[in-house]
Amino acid sequence: MKPSPGGASANSPALQRRETWEPSASPGGTTDALTYTLKGAVEKRASHIIAKAMTGYGSRSGIPAAFVRILRSCMLDLEFSELSDPGRVRTRNEDYLGHVTPGSPAQARSHGWIFALADGVGGQRQGEVASRAAVQEVLAGFRRAKEMALHKDLLTQLVQAANARVCEAEAISGPSGAGMASTIVVCGVRFDRATVAHVGDSRCYLLRGNEARPITRDHTVAAEQARIGLLSAEEVAESTTRNVLTRSLGANLFVNIEIDEVQLLPGDVLLQCSDGLHGAVSAPEMAQTVGRHRDLSVAARELVSSANDQDGSDNISVQLIRIRSVERMGMYRGRPYKLR
Questions:
Q1: Could you read off the pLDDT of 9-21 as tens digits, one per residue?
Q2: Disulfide check for 339: which of 42, 224, 319, 328 has CB 3.0–4.6 Å away?
Q3: pLDDT class for 44, splitting at 50, 70, 90?
Q4: What is the mean pLDDT of residues 229-250?
């Protein structure tokens, strides 16, 4: 029986959120990094000023607004929106998505942001249980992560833990959960980099300018055949095996995870989606749609609407992450350092 990834929600037929991170009202953490070159009383006074600026009290303390903007532009800042829809054919939504945002400037540097999207495998029972278990495990593990953990290693551990969680959920469910499986794509964002881990055919794209470049590659029979030259891109689109997964969470106790890392620039948009979107809407269409809208929630709704209009046979989920500013960092022996 060939598994065909289905997709859908987090507890309700449609889920939409839009949040932006703003500096917390409790000073500390990142102010040390911004003032480490200052000494003695000068350093103490500068820290006090920067703390006020970064916590939103600049305008009430006589600190010029331009200075506040400069300080904030030195750090990673982003906005995002996410939306999930059951489509026009399926009654259940087997997709699940979620995120963890930092609660302070210090956490923005020590942990960053994480976004996860999973697509429960359709044609099997309780696909929605598998996708929910996978995403919840990833988010919970990220909250427990040590400060300054390398995202490449951390995301690998989190996806392996998600795989174990799906296997456990299948065992607990008994016969009704036999064959439980899910895809997953996870994106960690910190400093000026995005680290993406994935299993299956849920994708992550980098939208820069007017182009949408896939960061991930599908783990399907047709995609694997294309990589070794047996099928062309056109043949993959028409192949009956384009939805047959070669890797998924829950299929085995150990899963082969693919990890990619990209450097980010201000204005970049990261787009994560299930195959209900990328199977109906082309990459150029995605780039054009997002480029037309400053409001990411409007862009997300338009993408889902386009997928429903052009197909609608599967669940549709999308996460859009726009990078407002980055903190330029270098890496030495696996540890980040500030670029001047």
A1: 444 444 444 333 3
A2: 328
A3: very low
A4: 90
With 0-12 / 13-18 / 19 or more C-beta atoms within 10 angstroms meaning exposed / middle / buried, residue 256 is exposed
Q: Which two tokens stand for residue 38?
A: 């200052």
- 131 CB contacts (<8 Å, ≥6 apart)? 8, 94, 95, 96, 118, 119, 120, 182, 184
Higher-scoring residue by pLDDT: 39, 273: 273
Residue where the block lists tokens 């052009």: 310
Q: How far is it, in rounded angstroms, from Cα 95 to Cα 87?
A: 11
Rounded CA-CA distance 15/84 in Å is 5
Please name which of 100, 94, 137, 135 lies closest in space to residue 116, comparing C-alpha atoms. 135
Q: Which residues of 183-215 are buried (b: 16+ CB within 10 A; e: fewer)?
A: bbbbbbbbbbbbbbbbbbbbbbbbbbeeebeeb
Q: How many CB atoms lie within 10 A of CB 150?
A: 15
**Among the four given CATH numbers 3.60.9.10, 3.60.40.10, 3.40.50.2000, 3.30.70.60, the one describing domain 4-20+76-333:** 3.60.40.10
What residue spans define the domains of the chain?
4-20+76-333, 30-72
Assign 122 a pLDDT band (cuts: 50, 70, 90): low
> What mean pLDDT comes out for the span 31-45?
38
Residue keyed to tokens 């056109």: 234
Q: What is the pLDDT of residues 278-328, one digit of tens each?
A: 999 999 999 999 999 999 999 999 999 999 999 999 999 999 999 999 998
Q: What is the pTM of this model?
A: 0.79
